[in-house]
Specification:
There is one protein chain. The chain is an alpha/beta fold. About 55% of the residues lie in helices and about 10% in strands. It has a five-stranded parallel β-sheet with strand order 2-3-4-1-5, with helices on one face. Strands 6-7 form a two-stranded parallel sheet. The longest helix is centred in the C-terminal third of the chain and has 20 residues. The protein is elongated, with a radius of gyration of 26 Å.
Length: about 375
């Protein structure tokens, strides 16, 4: 049987299977039940959070033989055709390749014809922000007064590039990044169904690297399975993804406490030699500093931290060596560093300089107190 990646094999086919977008699912279901289906929707959000998937489920719900229904059956001919991408009345268009005015004019001409089989003609346009300004203008009139039983569903990762004139004609929904727990739970389900054994924090690390994107996390899971086989180990996950373990982060912070610049640089060089991803290291170190701050601020840090991932005793011990000002400054430095590393070909040098900057951070002093001391 042909291999199918997890992101496709485990793609939700019903509203009840969608993860992490409850507010959007509830709104769409209610609209279908009340017979208030809009002619234009715009789904925005980061990659891999379910925009196109939700568009397909919505297309099935309004065209299902039992519908319009708030939960498509996923069994009738219409649902199966939409699922397989064979429906002549539900078209998925790549906004990145159909960007010109001529493409939009062709679309407008086809819209005038009634649906061949389905109840609604649905046009799903992915990455719609790639369409040119003139093409958007050509679409305005049709979008404002479309023919009966035509639904547009736009999806974009860059809402800021969509003209206001388009936004005002659509119902806009912003998809949230998925939480760490939601991604871990789905990965656990996939591994259980596929007969994959996991140990320790392996799935936690994969979910963390997914950074709120279910598709990214599932792609990383496939990559790890290809490396490990049917048993996923912590060390193997770190090797494949290029992430550092908790022990490495704890050692780096110990060097920061001692202001030992030489040890810091040696540690960074060792991490680079081991083939670890410095972008992940920068992000993980920033998160570690955030955890130190939560420990200093809260009487119940276990509520604010993921105890499965963090060593609370070590955090409590290390936090005593830092002032809140120092932690805030360090976090700001790493935040800027991550952005600079993505734009530069000298990422490792930028990270080295930033690490040295962290070792030189000092707490702020109140000017009034300094004047008083001088006087």
């Amino acid at each position: 049987m042909e291999f199918q990646v997890s992101a496709r094999k485990w793609r939700p086919q019903k509203f009840s299977e969608l993860i992490g977008q409850e507010h959007i699912v509830r709104t769409l279901r209610n609209a279908i039940e009340l017979g208030k289906i809009s002619h234009a929707y715009l789904f925005s959000g980061t990659r891999g959070v379910g925009k196109t998937t939700t568009a397909r489920v919505l297309a099935k719900a309004i065209n299902c033989e039992k519908g319009p229904t708030p939960e498509p059956c996923d069994e009738c001919d219409f649902c199966q055709e939409i699922k397989l991408g064979n429906s002549i009345d539900v078209r998925e268009i790549d906004g990145a390749s159909k960007t010109s005015v001529d493409d939009v004019r062709e679309l407008i001409e086809n819209i005038q014809y009634v649906a061949s089989a389905c109840r609604y003609k649905v046009y799903i346009i992915d990455e719609v922000h790639m369409i040119s300004r003139n093409a958007f203008n050509a679409l305005l009139k049709t979008l404002e007064e479309p023919p009966p039983n035509v639904v547009f569903i736009f999806a974009t990762t860059m809402l800021s590039k969509i003209p206001e004139t388009i936004l005002s004609r659509c119902q806009c929904f912003e998809f949230k990044p998925l939480s760490h727990k939601q991604i871990v739970k789905q990965l656990e389900l996939i591994c259980e169904q596929e007969g994959i054994q996991t140990s320790g924090l392996s799935l936690e690390k994969i979910a963390k690297s997914g950074a709120g994107s279910m598709r990214d996390a599932q792609s990383l899971l496939d990559q790890v399975i290809a490396y490990c086989g049917n048993k996923i180990e912590n060390d193997s996950v770190e090797e494949v993804l290029g992430v550092v373990g908790r022990t490495t982060l704890e050692k780096l912070v110990e060097h920061l406490i001692k202001k030992d610049s030489v040890k810091l640089i040696e540690s960074v060089q060792s991490i680079i030699t081991d083939g670890k991803d410095l972008n992940f290291l920068c992000r993980d170190l920033a998160e570690y500093l955030r955890n130190l701050m939560m420990v200093k601020l809260s009487n119940k840090p276990e509520v604010l931290l993921d105890i499965q991932v963090c060593n609370l005793e070590v955090l409590q011990d290390q936090s005593k060596a830092f002032h809140l000002d120092e932690l805030q400054q360090m976090f700001s430095v790493l935040s800027r560093t991550e952005a600079e590393m993505k734009r530069s070909s000298l990422a490792h040098m930028i990270f080295e300089m930033s690490i040295l900057r962290l070792a030189d951070v000092r707490p702020f002093h109140r000017i009034d107190d300094m004047i008083k001391t001088i006087n």
